[in-house]
Amino acid sequence: xxxxxxxxxxxxxxxxxxxxxxxxxxxxxxxxxxxxxxxxxxxxxxxxxxxxxxxxxxxxxxxxxxxxxxxxxxxxxxxxxxxxxxxxxxxxxxxxxxxxxxxxxxxxxxxxxxxxxxxxxxxxxxxxxxxxxxxxxxxxxxxxxxxxxxxxxxxxxxxxxxxxxxxxxxxxxxxxxxxxxxxxxxxxxxxxxxxxxxxxxxxxxxxxxxxxxxxxxxxxxxxxxxxxxxxxxxxxxxxxxxxxxxxxxxxxxxxxxxxxxxxxxxxxxxxxxxxxxxxxxxxxxxxxxxxxxxxxxxxxxxxxxxxxxxxxxxxxxxxxxxxxxxxxxxxxxxxxxxxxxxxxxxxxxxxxxxxxxxxxxxxxxxxxxxxxxxxxxxxxxxxxxxxxxxxxxxxxxxxxxxxxx
Length: 405
Ligand code: XIL
What we know:
The protein has an eight-stranded parallel beta barrel with strand order 1-2-5-6-7-8-10-11, surrounded by five helices. A two-stranded antiparallel sheet has the order 3-4. Helix 6 runs parallel beside helix 8 and helix 11 (330-352) runs parallel beside helix 12. The protein is globular and about 65 Å long. The protein is α/β, with parallel strands linked by helices. The protein contains twelve helices and eleven strands. Bound molecules: (3S,4R)-3-hydroxy-2-oxopiperidin-4-yl beta-D-xylopyranoside. (3S,4R)-3-hydroxy-2-oxopiperidin-4-yl beta-D-xylopyranoside (XIL) binds at residues 17, 20-21, 23, 28-29, 103-104, 192, 269, 300, 370. Residues 17, 20-21, 23, 28-29, 103-104, 192, 269, 300, 370 line the site of (3S,4R)-3-hydroxy-2-oxopiperidin-4-yl beta-D-xylopyranoside.
């Protein structure tokens, strides 16, 4: 897929994701994947198509990712509250993660019931699990165009006080939520996905932008810093591996830094595929942050098996999507092999960049991934652990340079 198709893919992807973002916390994100992968089957590790996967090492010999990358970056995974007690994901989280992110439960639609009224029930479950298992928590997210409850914007938009009212609601929400989680999260995605996908203005034309202008980002970051002087503050976005999108994001960031707005780092979502992006693009994204004195977090890594999806697959309606792979076929194993090589290339890069302090996969294991229902319902196995929670080829490719996927 070329760069523009990929950018449109991501842009449309996020547009549609919003509908399900409103689903109740603990619900969405897929899970309806088919039968477990028989990853330890007989077979070759050759690079030719084969109807079985490579022979994988004994899962009991798998090193803990958090130990393997100790001293480089924290290893994170996203989870819903129901996954922290789940027989597949809980052992993986406990063994491998020293960071985690709530997949949906810390978003404004989940926490912000109405002005000054908050629901922390599910978020508290994630925090309690993390704390009991020595896992740090990344806060995701305080402000996102896809999770902006109507009460923030209630009122007469033509009135002279409307702008100040909306700003006050935003400041109160961020102040209260950051204060609540003070000492319990080490970083916040203060603003998620503020960057435009089109040439021209760097700013996404979100409801926040429409009411408060570009100032909303500064307002959010300053409120977060005032509520917690030490938590790391991030702007998080997708397609930072796309040079044009990165340039727009950095122009937005430069405006903030020039104005002395508190900002510690850039979150790179990295929802990528078996064929995109090249490592050099991701390196360029890290370097752009680094040269501005910012740190980098990889916040939502997954590697879709469908590297050949055209941009139209992410349109409305979705057209031309690659047909669902069938587990166990030669085409499936080819994708799994390509995925392993992509994961290896990415982790090799992460480990070589001192500015990368945290790397999170968007999910734990292939039994639960948002990509099984987006952009269409189909099998997708984008993570490092299979549907039973066993390390996949991608895992072994990451931890063992001599492993042949
Ligand atoms: C997704 C969740 O995984 C889904 O369960 C939910 O239905 C929609 O949101 N970028 C982000 C994440 O920043 O918050 C999104 O998470 C995926 C895209």
